[in-house]
Amino acid sequence: MKSEFYDTLNRQVLALFEGETNLIAAMANFSALINDSLDNLNWAGFYLMDNEQLVLGPFQGKVACTRIPLGKGVCGTAAATKETQRIADVHQFAGHIACDAASNSEIVIPVFRQSEVIAVLDIDSPVFDRFDSQDQEGLESLVKSLEKCLFD
């Protein structure tokens, strides 16, 4: 059951980052944990806010776009709207930025410090409609745990 899977993963996140204060180190291990734990992924990682754009951060996967303007593509839209973007078919998303032609679906979750978006978690899959509402809820919970460990 997916909820149990994400509960287990959440306990791992809390244990892995207890006492960790370095954002880059935490994001690097978080990316590895997601990449190793979820099936049918081809990219998992972070883009960090830098002025009015997102800049590539720690990730697992193929070479990626280095900079994404705020409001552009799925990542830029998630950062600008401060809302998770769960896209069943990225080829139907207006303004999609194709860093990897093998990606067919994507979920992007904003990472907050207080009410400010400081990064986004970007997860891509070669499978269409890979992420459902349970994945979204589970992944958002993992990001909240990461925020709690780093910023509380």
Shape annotation: globular
The secondary structure category is: alpha+beta
User: What is the strand content?
Assistant: 25-35%
Query: How many structural units, i.e. domains?
Result: 1
CATH topology: Beta-Lactamase
Features of the shown structure:
FRMsr_CS; six-stranded antiparallel β-sheet; single chain; 152 residues; Free methionine-R-sulfoxide reductase YebR; globular; 28% strand; alpha+beta; Phosphatase_reg/MetRdx; Beta-Lactamase; L-methionine-(R)-S-oxide reductase activity
Describe this structure in words.
- Residues 44-143 form the GAF domain.
- The chain has helices spanning 2-16, 23-37, 73-81, 133-151; strands spanning 43-50, 53-61, 67-69, 85-87, 105-113, 116-125.
- It has 152 residues and is α+β, with helices and mostly antiparallel strands.
- The chain has a single domain, classed as Beta-Lactamase.
Topology:
Elements: H1 2-16, H2 23-37, E1 43-50, E2 53-61, E3 67-69, H3 73-81, E4 85-87, E5 105-113, E6 116-125, H4 133-151
Antiparallel strand pairs: 1-2, 1-6, 2-3, 4-5, 5-6
Helix pairs in contact: 1-4
Brief synopsis:
This protein has 152 residues and is an alpha+beta fold. The chain contains four helices and six strands; from the N terminus they run ααβββαβββα.
